[in-house]
Design a protein that fits this description.
By secondary structure, the protein is of the alpha+beta class. The chain contains six helices and nine strands; from the N terminus they run ααβββααααββββββ. Helix 1 runs antiparallel to helix 2 and helix 5 packs antiparallel against helix 6.
Length: about 210
C-alpha cells in the first residue's frame, strides 16, 4: 500500500464519508505528516511548525467522533496554511488563522457532511472561530451528542462542582480552578497539576471511593 492509499484509508476510517475527497485534496496540495494518536488530556489535535523539518506534522486523537475529528483536522491544517502564507510572526489563533480556518471549512458546511444540528452550531461558531471547539459550549455539547459512549455514565468536567473528585484515563483528579477553556486539576496520587479541557468526559467518584 503506497502513501496515498494509507492516507485515504485513514481518512475513510475517521472522517465523515462525504468529506474524504476534500481532506485528501488538502493533503495532496500541501503534504504533511499525519498521525492518529492516543487520547491526550489537554488537546484534541496538534500542529507545530518546525523550521528544521521539510514536512510538518499534524496529529489528531483517535477517539473523536467523525464530525469532531473533521473539525479538528481542518483546525490544524489551517494552522499549517496560515503559517505558510503569513509567516511565523502571526498569533496562533489570530485573524490570519481564523480567516484560513473559515475558508477551509466553507466547502464542508453542507448537510451532505454534517447533521443539521451540528451545521447550525458551526454556522454560529464561524462568525468568530475560537481557539478550540471546547470554548464554544453550544458547539461542544452538540458534537458530544454524537460520541459513541454518550450514555456511558460519564459527565463533562465543566459540569462538576469545584472540589469534585473524578477519574480520567484510569487516573484520579480533583477539580480546582476554571481557566478560560481549561480547568486546573490536581492528580491525587502525585499532587501534580494539569490543565484539562473543560469538556473532557470524566467519571465522577464518590469521596468514599477515593
Amino acid at each position: 500500500m503506497n502513501q496515498d492509499q494509507k492516507f485515504l484509508e485513514a481518512f475513510k476510517k475517521y472522517l465523515p464519508e462525504a468529506s474524504v475527497p476534500y481532506c485528501f485534496h488538502l493533503w495532496k496540495e500541501k503534504p504533511f505528516n499525519f498521525f492518529v494518536t492516543k487520547e491526550r488530556l489537554t488537546k484534541l489535535g496538534d500542529f507545530r511548525f518546525r523550521k528544521d523539518r521539510k514536512l510538518q506534522t499534524i496529529s489528531i486523537n483517535h477517539n473523536l467522533n467523525p464530525y469532531q475529528f473533521l473539525i479538528t483536522f481542518i483546525h490544524e491544517v489551517a494552522h499549517y496554511r496560515a503559517f505558510e502564507d503569513h509567516g511565523l510572526g502571526i498569533r496562533p489563533h489570530g485573524g490570519e488563522w481564523k480567516s484560513t480556518f473559515r475558508n477551509l471549512m466553507l466547502p464542508l458546511l453542507s448537510e451532505k457532511v454534517f447533521p443539521k444540528d451540528i451545521l447550525m452550531a458551526l454556522n454560529r461558531h464561524f462568525r468568530n472561530p475560537k481557539a478550540s471547539t471546547g470554548s464554544d459550549l453550544f458547539l461542544s455539547k452538540t458534537l458530544k451528542s454524537y460520541d459513541k459512549n454518550e450514555s456511558n455514565g460519564k459527565s463533562l468536567l465543566v459540569d462538576l462542582p469545584k472540589g469534585e473528585v473524578f477519574e480520567l484515563q484510569g487516573r484520579k483528579f480533583q477539580k480546582e480552578q476554571i481557566r478560560r477553556t481549561r480547568i486546573l486539576c490536581a492528580e491525587l496520587d502525585t499532587g501534580r497539576k494539569y490543565l484539562i479541557s473543560a469538556h473532557a468526559e470524566v467519571k465522577r467518584i464518590h469521596q468514599s471511593e477515593s
